[in-house]
Amino acid sequence: MANESRPCPCDIGDRFDYGGRGQEVQVEHIKAYVCKPPASTDKAVIVIHDIFGWQLPNTRYMTDMLAANGYIAICPDFFEGREAWKPSDDWSKFDDWLKTRDARKINKEADAVLKYLKEQCGAKRLGVVGFCWGGIAVRHLMMTYPELKAGVSLYGLIKDSDDISNLLNPTFFIFAEKDDFIPLHQVTLLEQKLKKNCKVDFEVKIYPGQTHGFVHRRREDINPQDKPYIEEGRKDMINWLNKHI
């Protein structure tokens, strides 16, 4: 359960042993990891990392997966070169660390990445996915940038006061049934607000028996009972992008 010594769920899960098929590039004031599909395309997806930053092998694995499905995929360093969180860090200092990394204050980085995708990669159809911290960032970007035609927010923490009804384009929300950090009543409230006020296509889906981070932080070979839900979450993410981009 969430408590003062463990205020964030991102220490749950596995760190993949994965090297990546893409390359690191400089995008204005930040670095980014880019992976391109075998065939030329004008479709691109921005991948937003969790608190462990843009170099986490798990996130690069997801980036490469998107590229394998036909997208130019880019995972920028939204922490702008500052230290990502490490599981060995002092969790009692996490809240102070997080205050300097606001997932809703990333417009400067988003502007740079969108410009790079359009001018350097020839991208015309754009989407965004994000995990945990990145899931919060996706919600912000989908209310800010009309050129993002589809968004997938994976287990981004929510508050009862959050109002994300002003989504500009279709957005898919992935949650885990047994996420100790995102109570199901918050997910229900979020869905009620969207049904009442949202003007665009959306979907909220809860995956049975799963815990926080399951789509990108769970190894299906270690947890065979989770494998169908991990695969389903990844497939749903790609299907949503395919449908709307």
Q: Could you characterize what this model shows?
A:
This protein is α/β, with parallel strands linked by helices. The chain has helices spanning 57-68, 94-99, 107-120, 133-142, 184-197, 214-217, 227-244; strands at residues 23-27, 30-35, 43-48, 72-76, 125-131, 148-154, 171-176, 202-207. It has one domain (23-244): Rossmann fold (3-Layer(aba) Sandwich), CATH 3.40.50. It contains 7 helices and 8 strands, in the order βββαβααβαββαβαα. Strand 1 (23-27) and strand 2 form a beta hairpin. The protein is globular and about 45 Å long. The protein starts with 22 loop residues before the first strand and ends with a helix.
Task: State the name of the first-level CATH class.
Answer: Alpha Beta
CATH architecture annotation name: 3-Layer(aba) Sandwich
**SSE arrangement, N to C:** EEEHEHHEHEEHEHH
According to CATH, what is the topology? Rossmann fold
Percentage of β-strand residues: 15-25%
Number of extended strands: 8
Q: Helical content, roughly?
A: 25-40%
Strand order of the largest sheet: 1-2-4-3-5-6-7-8
- The CATH superfamily bears the name Alpha/Beta hydrolase fold, catalytic domain
Please state the structural category: alpha/beta
Total helices: the number is 7
Distance between the termini: 37 Å
